[in-house]
Amino acid sequence: MGSPTWPRALLLLLPTAFMLTCLPAAPRTHLPLDLTTNFACRAKAYGDLSTPRCQQVLKEGPALSVPTLALSTVQLCLHKCQPCVRVSLALNATGIKGLELHFLVLNSNRSVRLQVFRRHKRQEDSATLWQLQFDCFTAESGQWVVVWLKTLPHGALVLNQSLLVINENSGPKFHYTWMPAARVIEVSVPEGPNVTVRLCHQLALECEELSPLFHKQALVSRHQPAALPYEFLLPCLCIEASYEHRDSLRKKKCPFWDQPEAYGPELWSSTLIEDYSTSNEAQMAMSLRSRCLLYPNASLCWKESATPEATCSDIPNSTATRVNQIYTLEEVDIHPQLCFKFSYANSSHVECPSRTGPAWNVSLSVSFLQVHLHFHSRVPASFSSALCQQQQPPLGECVPEPPIYTITHLEGRGTWDLDLILPWRISRSCVLVWRSDVRFTGKQLLCPDISRKYWGLLAFGLALGLGLLVGIILLIHWGLCRFRRDAPSRGHSHPILLIYSPDSEEHKQLVCAFAALLRSALCCPVLLDLWELSHVGRLGILPWMYAQREQVSQQQGQVLVLWSAGSACAYGLWQGNARAGPLLAPEPHDLFGAAMACLQGELRDTSGVARQSDWVIAYFSKLCGRRDIPQALRYLPRYRLPQELPDLVRVLQGPSSSTPGWFHASAKSLVRRLLRAEKRKGPQSRPHQPRRTATNRLAGSLFSLAHPKPHRPNCT
Length: 716
Fold this sequence. Notes:
The protein is of the alpha+beta class.
């Protein structure tokens, strides 16, 4: 029976092969060959073939149809593995005494033969079935081997088969063509057996199949290629091929690992990103699940707007921590515009929090020479703001200018509203606002939309209802300019370290306003922790306090303690007196306690006599009295405001300093009126509702005195 898989011309080679068997035998190799039969046998080998060992194995039934001559490629491993041809045979042994197998390698004309006989001669049974398996005839990968069978005596049966030897250690050979327009990969194979191919995503230990809509397993032959579609062009997209028989070695090619096209938008479109950020814990967390086994880096960036095409500016030193596939970063202001930027192989993707809305928002309104910021927050937080001047393109930045104004949301649940008032200097001013109690936050830029029509209405309203106030402001402005022109003649300006107790947010605004008034009127540096929060955060309150105290001492300045009713309570608590008063709201740092410790240390160093010229106490007469100052501090100079404001100015800047009478009168009248309203408000006012209170109006008015509409002279 001829082989259907080989051309008829091959049959012409059989006589030549038969003649080659008559040649002298070549030296035999000593490879361990096995011959497994269902009868007792003996074998003889000719050529460079070792005589195999005969093993009898009884089988209950035939594994192959009769007659059958089957060939297959297996691995023969001694010191190293090499391919060889396994022969499986089944035939009816009636009337035959033995059989002869001929092996011919067409590429090299190598020829050997093997004879197999029954060991014990006895009368054959007509129903006898011979089954035989020979392991095996070695050949090189890619060679064609022809095997034919003849029975002994000759003429009873002749069978032949051919086989292309494949080294399955390297897997099947195939070629591919990428067709990006059709989004398919075409696979073809050269000569040889059929190959099964598929597309998969290569992971650590396995190649995972594509989604059901794109999963396809195709049979490829020499004359029939296969087109495999894909969903996403990814770096881990691979082609896997194997032979048809069971347990065939699989071969993979991943052609897109080094292709830039595989690291484009489709890489991130195929990635599932889930947001687990929590505003209450100020923790930003996202999980990433990709079709490929990739580990991108993640860092923070601030998105200019909510539109998808908006740019996202990187925030330095904000790399997230990755555990498995979850990226986390602590102390983050959870905001829809504060996003994670995932980066991998020159490709990036921006993902913004989506599970919750912003934890806070701010609105802006403008009145005469003032900017009102209204904060609406549902988490405890601190917010800072500063004025800036919008730069012209190409820079386009808005660099904040000192001072920095801060307001704090007290601990508690529910939604809170906070107000902050800033001086408005010129019409081109904008305001930068950010959350200052966390490490990573984005700065929001708010610019008032003031048109010429608005200015016309404002001028008309001022002419009708605020004419008197404009006159007073202009008078104050003229006096300040004159006072500043005389400042160089008074000598060097001395720094002032301002100490206060954190009674409430309104009280902090009053402190900021009073500090701004001193700095503008006296042309001297005022050292205030609320204006140096970033510096305080890096050093700590105690190192910052002692550094400023040393600067004041070296430059012959003053430490001004702005006393209040809350200061008396804070002093009692600092002394350990539980009956000193109600507990104050917790603060992130204790400037007042640090100042008292510094003062007490100086008392000890000087044997009970402090440098009284360095320490000054001032208080607003309508909010507290001299009796609120502890007995231990009454030896220090004390000044009641606004009545003794001129004396305080002379102490702060030296005996030779003087202030114009209009400044004293204006400040005295304004402060007395506003503090009287503050006292009528009563002590039961809630500290977290600062809108429309007298202290807030005082802050705005003091800011108006400190920054009286533009072209104020520079203080050096």
